[in-house]
């Protein structure tokens, strides 16, 4: 690895994520789950694979990625790629909490 830079805007980027509770349209069990809509995950673009609203072409069919031309090609998210950003945001939040705790303790002692 090279060109490493600490993530310093974790909280700002995390605030752009929109977590949802949803179920899949094609899942008859109607099991509700938590997650994101891939096209909205702009904070970590490398976590998203695919193109919003993409439909299958002959190439997709030929590669075995779809059964028929026009079938939806769904985006996906590699959630593990969100972990560094989540960790950075948590570290930023903990640092802010610790500063506030120190200030409160000083006020209470004073």
Brief rundown of the structure:
The chain is α+β, with helices and mostly antiparallel strands and 110 residues long.
Write the layout of secondary structure elements.
Layout: H1 10-14, E1 20-22, E2 33-35, E3 48-49, E4 54-55, H2 58-62, E5 72-73, E6 76-77, H3 83-109
Antiparallel strand pairs: 1-2, 3-6, 4-5
Q: Could you give the order of strands across the largest sheet?
A: 1-2
Helix content: 25-40%
Termini separation comes to: 48 Å
The number of helical runs is: 3
Report the average pLDDT across residues: 95
Broad structural category: alpha+beta
How many strands, which pairing sense, and closed or not: the largest β-sheet?
A: 2 strands, antiparallel
Contiguous uncertain segments of 5+ residues: none
The count of strands amounts to 6
- What is the helix/strand order? HEEEEHEEH
Strand content: 5-15%
User: So what's the overall shape?
Assistant: elongated
| Cα Rg | 21 Å
What tags apply to this protein structure?
110 residues; alpha+beta; two-stranded antiparallel ribbon; 3 helices; 34% helix; elongated
Structure overview:
This protein is α+β, with helices and mostly antiparallel strands and 110 residues long. The chain is built from 3 helices and 6 strands; from the N terminus they run H-E-E-E-E-H-E-E-H. Strands 1-2 form a two-stranded antiparallel sheet. The chain has a two-stranded antiparallel sheet with strand order 3-6. A two-stranded antiparallel ribbon has the order 4-5. The protein starts with 9 loop residues before the first helix and ends with a helix. The relative contact order is 0.17. The mean pLDDT is 95.
């Amino acid at each position: 690895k090279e060109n490493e830079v600490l993530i310093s805007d974790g909280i700002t980027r995390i605030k752009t994520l929109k977590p949802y509770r949803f179920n899949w349209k094609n899942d008859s069990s109607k099991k509700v789950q938590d997650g994101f809509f891939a096209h909205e995950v702009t904070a970590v673009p490398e976590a998203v694979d695919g193109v919003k609203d993409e439909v299958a072409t002959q190439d997709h069919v030929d590669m075995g990625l779809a059964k028929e031309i026009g079938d939806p090609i769904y985006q996906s998210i590699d959630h593990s790629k969100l972990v560094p950003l989540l960790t950075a945001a948590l570290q930023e939040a903990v640092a802010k909490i610790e500063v506030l705790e120190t200030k409160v303790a000083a006020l209470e002692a004073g």
